[in-house]
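User:
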Amino acid sequence: MEQLFGVLIGGVIALMGGIIGQITTHQYTRHREREKLIREKAEAILLARFKHAEWIGNKRRMLWNGKEHDEADPSDLVSALNSLYFPECGNVLGEYFMAAAVLIDFIFSEGLEYSKDVQKWLDNFEIRKTKFAELYKPYGAVSVKYTQSVILAVEAQVAVEKPVFSQFGGWLASRCRRFKT
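Assistant: Predicted structure:
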């Protein structure tokens, strides 16, 4: 009877260990997958934002040389990813798109001027280039601000790994710290 009782207790302990192990593994995996998703979406949104900046540059080059520019604007992708994964960055994204709109309006108006009278447009090219550079400064600043806000949002959503031995005191714990990735 004692052996049966010991076997039953051992079986219950093994069963509980298996259940707890599965639950812990499942929670850990879900947590890691969420962190991975957030990092991937942050990378995707920043790449889309860089493509948007490149799109603006391409539009300026094409229109200011009298050519059509029919490449798709990647701003919709930036907006969609931001809304889904980083809504806390929405205000900064709004500032970014406002600065981009000012720049794009200037590019279009200059493209129209170019198509009307190329020589007159070229005669004032330095003035136009200076004006573009002035309009680009706030756009560049808000681009950096948006990138930083996405990075901060990622850091807020992704858990910072804690030192393994933090409960055992300072010296060992301070040497076991892991940095954010």
